[in-house]
Write the structure tokens for this entry.
Amino acid sequence: MVRSPKKIRLIPCLAVLFAIFLSTRSEAARLAYLEQMPLEAFAKLREIEKHQLKIAEKFYLKGEHKAAAAEYDKFLTLYERSSGGPYSLLMWAHCQVKLRLVNTAVRDGFQSVIDYWPESHEAVVSTFMIAKCHLLNGEPGKADKAFAQLADDFPKHSLATLSRVEMLGIATTRKDKERQVELWTDIAYKTPKTKETASYRSSSARSLADHFFGENEFQKGVEALETYYDKNRHDHVHAVHDVCNSVVSRLFRSSETKARAEKLGDGLISFVEQALPNDSQEKKDKDRTRDLLERITSVHKSLDRDKQVLASYERMGKVLGMDDAILGSMAAWHKGKKRIEQARSLYGRYKDKVNGRRAIASSYREEGNYEEAVRQYLSLIGLDKDREAEWQRDVVATWRGAYKVLRQAKYLTKAIATYQILLKVDADRFSEYNWGIAECHEKLSKWKEAILSYRQTDKFPEAYFRMAECHRHLKKWNEGLILLNQARSHENVADRAQHRIAQFYEMSGQKEKAIKSFQVTCKKYPKSRYASISHAHLQTKYGISVTLGGATDK
């Protein structure tokens, strides 16, 4: 390669730099704009030079990195004095990285860019990539020093931010908390506030705040979040609450740090209190008040302050007017404390009597009092006749849930009876309800009844499999085989059906047909998991080795 020591003006193109950074991390995100030359530099190239770069790029886009490298090298040979030289060599080096020739990329590519074009934008990128290559080579110490040097040499460059992010990753791996705090601080306070850096700044601000809150340095935590969130906007209060309350919860879980959690929680409550609107008459102020009072309540919850939680909800009711949402939150808290009757009492105070009654019914169901739950669900028909189908579905779910827990056949019988009602009041969903009836009959070992119900559904081909299984229980092998052959006509389940046909032959004592059918499974569906299962079964049970192509060797 012929290199020219030509220098070009530094072009800090943030989008391109971030793209290049990403391309080293994810093959899936490798292109679109990832390795594009800065537009200003590209515009200065001659058409013949642009053409050559496009040829190289085409190979690169296709993942043909060896061919791409050859074309980038060709550019350097043909146009050695071109301003596109540093970019072409940079991309040649990227190709070497993709080809896992990392040392070659550094020695002959990235370092050469720095040596020959030290003032170029590509030189800065190359410096960054050399550090990345140290990581790829398993040398985090060298990488850390290289990233640090880049950040010092180019403090205002976009890659200074990415270098700090990389150093942060190294510090995290090393569990070096002091270094993490230092880097969070640098990223949060020193990084230019741009759209491209937003995620890094936000993450570092929140991590730094989390650290300070954990050390009971509340004000420092607040100030850390102010680096990203405007303290005059609501989202700043939200961020302080979210990060700090998470720390409160974490500290409260340990007996050794409970006292710190209490102190921190009280500080957070005081902070949120100060943000409350003076007047809650306007809708926006009312919504704001609700949000902040809920956040105060959540802190009390994190500290498991039973009386304060309930008092906080009562306060919300007085300030905003007691509504179903507040009553529901109070009821949920009582339920969490196993105070079911208090919860039901609150549900009974709902303005929306239907939702209140339904919540009561659900509480009985959760408690395992299925009979009372059903009674409550059925009473809803009197409150809202138009939604009878909905209440009956709740009843079905209750009976089936009862069977799942208690395994008593009577609950399935009651579920079937309710399904029969649903077929009358909600006929449009006949297939769904017949399927439910069929499932209940199956669990009751009523195979004939189950078959009849499955036939009245539209869930094919799955219904074929279900009916075949019912016939299996009845020892009606031929009927089952007919159904499985019908299922086999559906391409998406053909392999499964063929495998099950073989099993049916085997269970019915038809050994030769079973073996042949297992072999057919292997031959027709070689990539299916059922082929693997059939292959293993033939070997273990019959001593037959079958290739996935269907050849046999006894």
Notes: Residues 1-34, 548-554 have pLDDT under 50 and may be disordered.
